[in-house]
Amino acid sequence: MNWKSVLSLVSLAALGAAPILAELYSANPQGVGMGHMHVLTRDIEAQKKFFLDAFGGKVVKNGPIEMIEYPGVYVLFTKADNPPGSKGSVVNHFGFTVKDMPGSIEKWKSLNLKIEPTANPNEVFVIGPEEMRLEVYGIPEQAEPIVMNHIHWDSPDIPGMQAWYDKMFSATAGQRDCVACLPRKVPLEEGRLPRTSLSFSKGAPTLVGTKGRALDHIGFEVKNLEAFIKTLEAKGVKMDSQVQKVQGADLKIAFLTDPWGTYIELTEGLAPKK
């Protein structure tokens, strides 16, 4: 048995025998839900291998668009020359939760992945190509082996950002516990989409936008994209692009940038047809 087969067996054992039943989370009453994270990379195959070996998932296609499917999110890849890592931009990382954290840590160690511990032994950062940062912590009671959990901003203006995402996407403003902040609990400001936290920590005003970096943009799936964009424009948003139909797929897309430099893609029909 060659080493690739061994690593595949280790990955399957750590994730458990149950299959990953992946689909996007439901939208909120305004028709907005989590969609995707889009990664720029020098080597698409190496980045895909990192995500598949470390976190499982399933490669799927919507027309010409290939992506990795997880419960609650798709991860997409585009080739780019030497994109800087996500650290140093306003979006520092995104995060999963896993059912078997001890087994997952053993798997990552067997793959010789870079792991950054935190004050919480039930949480780590797993570092991939292009210094891609993935926060992961364990929730043993969750049903799925792995699910999308949050996007984490280093924000120079937490109240402003929280209010903007609430106003534009109805990401309900609130607080959640900071998982890494032990031994005492510290509240973390957030905007809440169904089963996904838009989490905000204090960041320096020198942080840059996401476009062109390893974590190039975030994506929200929306219902009735054209009508939704009209509501954004009525609220003062200037779109970077209007609705485009992706050739070969039943998919519409549009782009905008938040006031702090987060590049955002809106999609309608991202999930492959079953």
Features:
274 residues; alpha+beta; 2,3-Dihydroxybiphenyl 1,2-Dioxygenase, domain 1; eight-stranded mixed beta sheet
Descriptive notes:
The longest helix has 13 residues, at 3-15. Mean pLDDT is 91; it is low at 1-21. This protein is globular. It is 21% helix and 39% strand. The protein is of the alpha+beta class.
Q: Percent of residues in beta strands? A: 35-45%
Helix fraction bin: 10-25%
Spans with pLDDT under 50 lasting ≥5 residues?
Answer: 1-21
Number of helices: 5
Q: What is the CATH level 1 assignment?
A: Alpha Beta
The 3D shape can be described as globular
Which class best fits the helix and strand makeup? alpha+beta
The CATH superfamily bears the name 2,3-Dihydroxybiphenyl 1,2-Dioxygenase, domain 1
Based on the coordinates given, report the CATH architecture. Answer: Roll
Q: What is the helix/strand order?
A: HEHEEEEHEEEEHEEEEHEEE
Beta-strand segment tally: 16
CATH topology: 2,3-Dihydroxybiphenyl 1,2-Dioxygenase, domain 1
Report the major sheet.
8 strands, mixed
Q: State Rg.
A: 18 Å
Overall pLDDT metric? 91
How is this structure best summarized?
The chain is of the alpha+beta class and 274 residues long. 21% of the residues lie in helices and 39% in strands.
Topology:
Layout: H1 3-15, E1 32-41, H2 44-55, E2 58-62, E3 65-70, E4 73-79, E5 91-98, H3 101-110, E6 114-117, E7 123-127, E8 133-138, E9 146-155, H4 158-169, E10 172-177, E11 187-193, E12 196-202, E13 215-222, H5 225-234, E14 241-245, E15 252-257, E16 263-268
Parallel strand pairs: 1-4, 5-8, 9-12, 13-16
Antiparallel strand pairs: 1-13, 2-3, 3-4, 5-9, 6-7, 7-8, 10-11, 11-12, 14-15, 15-16
Helix pairs in contact: 1-3
